[in-house]
Amino acid sequence: MIQTEFSAEQTAIIHPETELLIFGSYAGLYCIIIWICSLLIKNYPIPLFGCQGFGNDLWYLLFAKIIFLLIIPIFIYCNRGYNLSSLLQWKFQSKGKNTIATALFLTLGLLINHNYLPRIIEVKDHINIMMVLISFLIPLLTAAIPEEIFYRVILQTRIEKLFGRTIGIFCSSIAFSLFHFPSRFFLSNDMEGVAGNVLSVMMGTVFPIFIAGLIFGLLWSKFKNMYLLIALHAGIDFFPQLADLLGIKT
User: Fold this and answer.
1) Cα–Cα distance between 245 and 187 in angstroms, integer?
2) Which of 14, 26, 73, 123 has an alpha carbon 20 to 30 Å from 33's alpha carbon atom?
3) What domain count does the chain have?
4) 225 and 97 in contact (C-beta within 8 Å)?
5) For residues 17 and 1, what is the distance between their CA atoms, to the nearest angstrom?
């Protein structure tokens, strides 16, 4: 069994009603921020690493993700009277077991998107260590860490505190899936949907992400171990990121 021991400081929510209003409102605002960033990418793209996918555009990586989904929510969190350590430094009952569990979750994430491997192997001669590092660090810093901290650790925890586990998981999953809509609606043209086609984006992105959100929400509710979620999330995004760097179309 994976167990995590928390101090009172790490589990206490100071003002759940006020904080849910603040972070819930921010989740709604964030959808608008993504909408704006998507329009900026469409009209004034700043692609990085030679990639064509919007997920590797400066507007998306730096502004939409690192600034607006990581830095600002953490700033608000700390401004509410919490120490950053209460968000990040968990006390494990067994560091060895949890290290193994984290590695297993990372491996599981990699296996989920193993279907990219045949196409990646075809161009394996073009892969270098820098590509591998970027493919790990970009999803980690711009997706796994900010999304799991905001939507699970911060938002879901406060919804659960007020309305219970089921509603917490369900509502945080809705918020998690909805922020993916604007970017795909304006920019996608692959298996995640066709730009301008609401139904294709809903079926290709929003619904699958909602299901993924439910799974991540269940894992957070059960283990309260964000490192497992971050490892799983980073593993899932690794091969798609590497494929984008290699110019592989999905």
Assistant:
1) 18
2) 14
3) 1
4) no
5) 33
